[in-house]
Amino acid sequence: MSVSVNIDKVVKKFGEDKVIDKLSLDIQKGELFTLLGPSGCGKTTLLRMIIGFHSIDDGQIKIDDKVINHIPVNKRKMGMVFQNYAIFPHMTVEDNIAFGLKVNKIGKEEMTERINDILKTVRIEEHKTKKPENLSGGQQQRIALARALVIHPKVLLMDEPLSNLDAKLRIEMRNAIKNIQQEVGITTVYVTHDQEEALAISDRIAVMNKGIIQQIGKPEEIYSRPANVFVSQFIGTSNIIKGIIKKKEDGLYVHLNDMYSVKMNNLKQDEIVDKQEVLVSVRPQEFIITNKESGIKGEIDSTMFLGLNTHYFVNLDSGERVEVIQDSEEEEILPEGKDINLNIKSKKINIYHADTKETLIKAGGHDEQK
Ligand SMILES: Nc1ncnc2c1ncn2[C@@H]1O[C@H](COP(=O)(O)OP(=O)(O)OP(=O)(O)O)[C@@H](O)[C@H]1O
C-alpha cells in the first residue's frame, strides 16, 4: 500500500541560515513527485528531513497523517538512492541487495525470493553474481535502486540519481526509473536540478528557489503557465520583454511598442490598472517572423541552423535581446544583419507584474484561450 506525505510549514536552519522556510506540500499516494531547483536551493536538505538524516526545526512531516518528526531514520521505512550510488564495491550485486534485508533480519527463503523479484524488476538478473566494478554506471544505479526497493519502503527518495551518467544513459535510466516506479506503485520523492529530467519523469513538480516553493503543478502546467518570472526562466527558455497594459472598451491589450499590441482575454482584470507596466514572457518558438507592418522590430545578430529548426538571436530596437526559433521547413534561413519584424502568439505568452514578477494570467486561463 502506498502512502501520502504531508509536509507542513517545515523549517531548517544551519546556524543563522534558514535554508528551508515554512515550506508546505502534499505528496499523494503512489505519486512521483519532483523537487526541482537550482543548486543550493534546499532540495537535498528537504529530502534529508523527510528520511530523517536532518532534524526538523519547526513544522511537521506526516506519513499518512502520522507525524514522523521524532522517528529515527531506521524506523521510518524509507529507501534512498544517491547520486554516487553508495553501493559496496567489494560485494556482489546479490549481496549488495541482501544487505538491508539482513539488517532487518529477514529469513533466508523470503530473502532469496525478494532479491530475485527485485532483480527482475530492475532488469539486472544476469548480473547477480558480479561485482559492481564490472558493471556500467546505469547498471550500478539499478543495483542502488534494487537495494532501496527490496526492503519494501513506504517512500522512495532519490537524490540526483542520474547526475553521474552520460547524456544517453541518463535518458535511458530516467525511462527505466519511471517504469519501475509505476510498476511498484511506490510514493517517490525525486530531486534534480535538471528541468528536462523533471518534466520527463514527474507526475508533479515543485519548483524551489532559496528554500521557498515557487510553484507546484503537473509538468505541462509548469511549462505553459509558470507562476512567476523565476519559474518561467528556469523551466525551458523564455525571453522577458517589457510591455504596458492598456484598458480599452473591448478588453485588455498588452502594448509591446507604439505600433504593436496583443489582446489578452485571460488576464486577472481586478489586479490590473490602465498603463500598468508588465513583463511579457515569450518562448523562442512563440515568435512569428512576419512581413506585416506592425510588430516588434529588430536586427538578426546571429543565425544558427540546427536541422529541424533555426535559432536566431535578435537585437530589438528597444535594446532588448531575444531568441527566436523557427521551423526550418516553414521559413527560409535569414542572414545575420537582416532587419526583421516579430509578432507573438498571444495565446501562449505569459504576463507578469513588473514589480512582484508574479503571473497576471488567471487560473485556468490556459484552457480558456484554446
Ligand atoms: N550540513 C550543512 N551545514 C551547513 N549548511 C548546509 C548544510 N547542508 C546544506 N547546507 C546549505 O544549505 C543550502 C541548501 O543546500 P542543499 O544541499 O539542500 O541544496 P540543493 O538544492 O540540494 O543543492 P545541490 O543541487 O547543489 O545539492 C546551501 O546553501 C548549503 O550550503
From TrEMBL:
Name the chemical reaction catalysed here: ATP + H2O + polyamine-[polyamine-binding protein]Side 1 = ADP + phosphate + polyamineSide 2 + [polyamine-binding protein]Side 1
Q: What EC number(s) does the entry state?
A: 7.6.2.11
GO MF entry, a single one:
ATP hydrolysis activity
Q: Enumerate the spans annotated as ABC transporter domain.
A: 5-235
Q: Which UniProt keywords apply?
A: ATP-binding, Cell membrane, Membrane, Nucleotide-binding, Translocase, Transport
Name the SUPFAM superfamilies for this protein. MOP-like, P-loop containing nucleoside triphosphate hydrolases
Q: What class of enzyme is it?
A: translocase
Task: Return the GO cellular component terms, semicolon-separated.
Answer: ATP-binding cassette (ABC) transporter complex, substrate-binding subunit-containing
Superkingdom of the source species: Bacteria
Which Pfam families has this protein been placed in?
Answer: ABC_tran, TOBE_2
Assembly information from the UniProt record: The complex is composed of two ATP-binding proteins (PotA), two transmembrane proteins (PotB and PotC) and a solute-binding protein (PotD).
Q: Which NCBIfam families match?
A: potA
Family membership noted in the UniProt record = Belongs to the ABC transporter superfamily. Spermidine/putrescine importer (TC 3.A.1.11.1) family.
Q: What does this protein do?
A: Part of the ABC transporter complex PotABCD involved in spermidine/putrescine import. Responsible for energy coupling to the transport system.
**Listed name of the protein:** Spermidine/putrescine import ATP-binding protein PotA
Q: What is the lineage of its organism?
A: Bacteria, Bacillati, Bacillota, Bacilli, Bacillales
Recorded name of the encoding gene: fbpC_1
